[in-house]
Amino acid sequence: MGKPPFPLQDQLRGFSRALFSTWLYHRRFNILFDAGEGISTALLNRVFGIRKVFLSHGHADHIAGLINLVNIRNLGAGDQTTELEIYYPRNNALIEMVRDYLLRTQSELSFPLAWRPVEADQNVVLDGRRGKTFLKTFRTQHSQRQLSLGFNIVEARCRLRPEFKDQPQQMINEAIWKNGKEKVVERFEQIVFTYGGDSRPISPTSISQSLFLCHECTYLNQGDDERNFHQHSVLDEVLDVAGAAEVKTLMLFHLSLRYSHEEVRGALVNALRRRKRGFHVVFLYGDRFYSLDRPSGWCSAPDSEGENEGNGEGEAPRDSEERSGEVML
């Protein structure tokens, strides 16, 4: 098999078109970020692999697929016993209206369904990770009338202390034997994946050194926001955020329908010429991913034939990012 077009390409499925629908499924963690219209039609029985749903805010293009998602999980041919948890910004009236509708119309579900309101700076331990991987929420700027959230998936890791990085293995082993492992390695937290939902430019401090940043990019040019709502991000702003945060890979999504994928690619090429880039860039246009290296694009990663999608058991595939000597704790 050849090298994937971009890190996590074999783990992500999604769709995003500003105003119409946005959702992103991360297979490694069995997590769905937002639940726009059409998700059940796109994933079919793969919806049974979803264990947790994280909603960034309550606008229709990000929650319209929830009702049918729950319905298919209840009536479809798949695992109807595993709990589905839906995390959403606390006190979001629009999401709670959908919740109340489902409680009235789906009162006898075949699986446990939990609605979990969350706030900014809250941690959620991810299943099957022995407490070493968790999701952390952070506040974003989108609508003045409701709380909107972004999400970091964080792994607890350890690495050699700086004074041992260039030492031969024998010397490292001797130091561990003499002084103990805690004197040779240090613990740290690595953001391995970030999803920002709809937002103004995210604060770089909230997503510092994320390995994979999903940042909305509704507009290619500052003047394209004719209504002056100032609720979304512009290409140059997003690239500045990615550079300041020192991310490894940037994925743009929530692009306005006014742009063709060729226009998006052209604007990216021109914008990147004006700056020093230390990160890889891809964008999700509809259900296809595009990069500067593959202008034809490719669809969301298909599942391998015979794969038991989302069984939630055992260790999931690891990120394709290099770890530079880092190991899991």
Written account of the structure:
Residues 304-329 have low confidence and may be disordered. 20% of the residues lie in helices and 27% in strands. It folds into 2 domains: 11-118, Ribonuclease Z/Hydroxyacylglutathione hydrolase-like (Metallo-beta-lactamase, Chain A, 4-Layer Sandwich); 119-299, 4-Layer Sandwich (Metallo-beta-lactamase, Chain A). It has helices spanning 39-43, 60-63, 66-75, 93-105, 169-179, 235-245, 261-273; strands at residues 12-17, 21-26, 31-33, 52-54, 84-89, 113-118, 123-125, 133-140, 148-160, 185-195, 212-216, 249-253, 280-285, 288-291, 298-299, 327-328.
Average pLDDT: 87
Helix content: 10-25%
How many domain units? 2
| CATH level-3 fold name of the largest domain | Metallo-beta-lactamase, Chain A
Number of DSSP-assigned strands? 16
Keywords:
globular; 329 residues; Metallo-beta-lactamase, Chain A; 10-stranded mixed β-sheet; disordered C terminus; alpha/beta; 16 strands; 6-stranded mixed β-sheet
Summarize the structure.
By secondary structure, this protein is α/β, with parallel strands linked by helices.
